[in-house]
Queue: 4 jobs
Job 1
Amino acid sequence: MSVAPDTTVILDNRFARDLPEMAVAWQAEPAPAPQLLALNETLAAELGLDAAWLRSADGLGLLLGTVVPDGATPVAQAYAGHQFGGFVPRLGDGRALLLGELVGPDDGLRDLHLKGSGRTPFARGGDGLAVVGPMLREYIVSESMHAMGIPTTRSLAVVATGREVQRETLLPGAVLARVASSHLRVGSFQYANLHAQAGGEDGLLRRLADHAIARHHPGAADADNPYLALYQAVISAQARLVAQWMLVGFVHGVMNTDNMTISGETIDYGPCAFMENFDPATVFSSIDHGGRYAYGNQPTVAAWNLARFAETLLPLLDDDGEQAVELATQALHDFGPQFDAAWTAGVRAKLGLPVGIDDATATALVGDALTLLQQNQLDYTSAWRTLARVARGDDDGLRGRPGFDDWLPRWLALNPDADAMDRVNPVYIPRNHLVEEALQAAADGDLDPFTHLMRALAKPFDERPGLDRYAAPAPDDFGSYRTFCGT
């Protein structure tokens, strides 16, 4: 179907044109009774989309994938991936569709992508549907991440379908419309590499790499070895990204290779959550029984995923297999130092340390601070804002706690900048009890808690009157928290 003729929405099909072996043309399932639950009007304006039109019947059709522009061809993307360490050669968009790419004023592309739009050939026995709670969760957390300046896919809208979906109980169905620089993943390269190993002679792996370079890391095209430069660029992007996660206490929860983007954006907010009391062993995902993706393991897992990425690129790095391995190994060795540099700079900023403090002093101070946070079972997010109040001379309750009477004078002697601390330490994050409150209310038809939460999260660093409950840790009766993938 086509959009209304007086509304211009142009979707390019560059991914499908460049990589037809990885794109299966498909249609979204109809929605019996669409209802708009959330619309990101700010993002819509950035994309050149009219918010009023998106609220219309045709606009909702676009957000559901049932009404698409003339010339657009929605596709399900193919990819592979390691899931909890086990390789699956054929994953792909089992319940998702790439509607196409929106072209920005700078000729940059942004994917318009759906989740929950129905079964595709990659569904692997699933129903291809999604429900209101997990789709609103992704909306909440991804937009919070964006507000904190962390690279992420964005959420444009959540539309209830009017269809009940069977999970443990019957739940209201929904589709999420999200936007990303692309949905290219490490798993995309794993799929293309398998194609090459199976005897494909059409250069799919090279075309995918060229597509990724042009779209995300164009500087690599001018390097002596463009594909090595691509790998190095992705390593750098992921080192910065994971450091940013760690700095705000974010636990992704499902760091499979199909959930690591080539762009360096956070993707897939299924079982994610934010750490409450500081503990590197924090795990929320109900299926992460061994703690593979625990908070403190995230840098190690990222490096493991990048090693898997390197394996796919070896045929492009050098004709000599041993030399290709050497090039990839040397590049991967840079991940640790780059992550450490990003983390160190970030945590120094969180403590308000002035420029010029030597590394040994800063490292010892940071290490001791994290130990004290864990030993005292302090809330990770609010502790940093509390320290800013200490820097201003306020009595905040930290003095007298085990270890702090020794640590605080060492830190205060360095003249920490409280205002600088407040610029990088959020007051408002998607606290787990507030997210659950908003999702439960939305499932019952009440969107007010969701709206109020999004209002707080839109300005995460600005403390505002009347929002105390959004800055407070979970109540004692909230209990142990578990998240689920929502599939």
Job 2
Amino acid sequence: MTMDKVHGTFVSEKINKVKWKPESLCDAGYFVTGSWDNETNQVTLWLYPPYEEDPDLYPYQVATYSHPGDVTEMAFINTDTFVVASSHGSVRLLKTRIDDVKTGKIVDLLKWDKLHYFTYGGPSPCTSVACFEDDIVSVGEDGRLNLLNARRPTPVHKIDEADSCSLRCVCFLKHNQVLTGNFRGQMKVWDLKSPSDKPSTTFMLSGDQIGAMCVTHHPTQRHMLLVGGENGSLTVWDLRHNNYPVTLLSAHSGSVSELKFHPDRPEHLLSCSTGGEVWHWDTTSMSRGTRFSASSGSSIEENPWLQSDAAKHRFEVFSLMPTLHKPINSLDINRTRAICGCDNEAFYVFNDVL
């Protein structure tokens, strides 16, 4: 990517999370950032004008919201409403209200305080949240798992001893089924409808107890998981056959901070790391295998990530910008743009990513 398509914005605070606001009819792009390591942290709504309109235009600050504790995760549940997790152990449901193109505000809808706490009573950081329609699941360093709902002021369900180790990541596989990963690399699948507070499946990320730092599923094939490890590795799992990972790739120089498939073109993946790298993985040129479907009587093209010999194929990996000397904590991608947030007190917008 040419550097004239990268816009860096200095914001005087370390950015821990970034998320694009889901697209509306407006051509302009809105996104939110969340800071950490301040006495009072901020959730900020930004507007990035269409790149084609004027390549020299930089993001506008539209609204700010004072947030207690570090912002540890954010996720939109619809075009205007999103959840924010805190190092104080709480989760908040916030809403963006845009008055006109460049002015607006962020308002509280719900607060779930003291969801995560240690046995001695002190607050435990909420490390990750995931959403499926109005359902929200949170996990934390205390090993707890909470099921919330955007229409209810109290938790729907709690599993106080979901893990004896710090939970680092969570994602919905389908409604009422979530997957968690812990700091020892243990992955667990939970059936939230089950009367038992025990996982339905447990497996290890790898044989070396590598911590699972982030997880994402394929946009159209939720049985395919990609997990980022604390050692910089990317592990591919097919949950239909989860005895062994499909592929284990040595990737980043530091812990993998976040992984994002392009929502409409999942042959493109972005990854970032604490080593200051942000990469674009392109599998469009990889040879794709086929399998025969007995139900349809025809051959079906397989996901290239799920081919058992995928590591032997040529992964095309591009760096979106020179390696930074500070961790890149978060990234997100929409139709044509990507964004990442860093510990160098800046965020970067990448235009025409694909």
Job 3
Amino acid sequence: MFDFVNKKSKISWKITILYAFMFMMLIFLVNLSIYFFLSNFIDDNIKKSINNTIELVLSQTSGIGDPVNFFDTELLQQISRSEENIFFRVLNKDGKIQAQSKYLKDMDIPFSAEIEEFRSGTKRLAVKTIPMNNFVFSKGYLQVVRDITFEKNFLDFLIIVLTMAGGIGALISVFLGYFTTKKMLSPINKITETAREISSSDLGRRLEVSGPDDELKKLALTFNSMLDRLEKSFKRQKQFVSDASHELRTPISVIKGYVDLLDRWGKEKKDVRDEAIDAIKKETVNMKQLMENLLLLARGDDSELKREEEMFNFNNLINEIISEFEIMEKEVNLEFVEKDEINFYGDQNLFKQLLRIFLDNAIKFTSHKGRIEIKIEKIDSDNFYFSVTDDGPGISSEDLPFVFDRFYQADKSRTRKANKGSGLGLAIAKQIVDNYQGDIDVESEAGAGTKFIVVLPLNKNNKKEA
């Protein structure tokens, strides 16, 4: 049976057959208990009846002579008439019959000092033999016989009834168990059908959740929640691919245009050739940077962001990055406010990239001769923060929730730089901060500048060094 259950593919059949088997075992045990209880009860009554009759006869003994007259014959007849199924046989010391009830005529009765059951034709009886050796003038035996045919037939009939009841109960349990299980597992069937019908282009379907708050309802809610996450993930992926394609289309179109220009005029005109080569080089660098950023984000999404960690001074790292930007951007005033000295254990190159993203973004949107402030400070013994604040045009409240989305640019017209970004910088920054279990936030309003705040935890290595 277990091999059959294992081979069945439907869980409803597995549960039904297992349930039916357990129900049959329960019925078997209950029926067995009922049978043994009644059987013992009836056997005890039979023994008690025989023993009580023997005590009554012995207490009414009236003579001590010949075994035939040893007992009161009227008493024995009266007991047989009143009990209807109690009979007597008197034997002499040699075991020969001296007197007996007519019911026992021609009946072969075993000679046993204990109560013993025997058959005589269709009758079933129980007998007990009493030796009369305690009397001085008489030696002999008294056999008390009880007809137990009715009781034994009742037990035989009871076995048949219990067996039939068990079989019928098992069949009913199979049918009821199947339909009950099928109804109870209907949410799982709905989940299966919904999952089969769902495709990447149709993730909006959901299960209808109703009924009691049981495990199946929780499963349906969990399935719907999973579909929500999948739908959001597919939408992000679709948007990501669409945006990436859009971002790559422009440099590819520029390169193709200059290649066509080279093909037509570059062979004859040196200035055209040089212009085309410079433009192609520039667009190639932009494409290379874009692909590296996309690869970094993809690795971060797959939790495969490689880190080469070491202890470094965060203040010195900020000063190093500021020095780099001061050489390239002399029109902007960079100020560093050091509230605390921070030694941090992490990947220095990743945090260089993080700081460059914030400074590059701040410089793009800062006015001529504007001011950018970088600040670092401990929050408590477990955390510190650094912030980058510019005095640019700021970000509107409608755009703030989306500034860390990939390829998102709040206002493409407000930058004073000709070379606009790809819209991946802040998404990469968030990926780096999240990878270190930190928090990143932005404070801004239109016309009032922007402030990016990064909170990072100091791990055990940080605290030990500090």
Job 4
Amino acid sequence: MTIRPILIHPDPRLKKAADPVAEVTEEVRTLAADMLQTMYEAPGIGLAAPQVGVMKRLLVMDCVKEADQAPRPMVLINPVILWSSETRSVYEEGCLSIPEQYAEVERPAEVRVRWMGLDGEETEEHFSGLWATCVQHEIDHLDGKLFIDYLKPLKRQMITRKMEKLKRERARA
């Protein structure tokens, strides 16, 4: 497994919609394994393929945070939200492509999602709490949308400027 570099906003690839995955190949399995490794190493609870520069509709997530619980790594290929609750929840979100920046985002509190697994089979699951927020955040990435797109323009511009500065500093390092 390889830890892949994570793109930092602003990068035009983060604003493009990703293409569906036609079939589960060895390349897709390798990508999923690399993405899980990259996500855990970062550390994060979710990662979408466009964040590692691969424009495919694939995401990984694991929202288990308790040390006494077994991890639950999930790979979702071509995920689709089938249903969203009218009830909303607010979470302070962050993003591996926007390091050290956090903001409250309001989203549906529960969602039902269908996706293809690495076995090629379709799966459906009802998510709530942090899992619901995470899966929606990652699906947004597949659609070229970032969590800062939910913020007021001034706050979004401020974060974007911080990221541009961070990229310049990293380029010099």
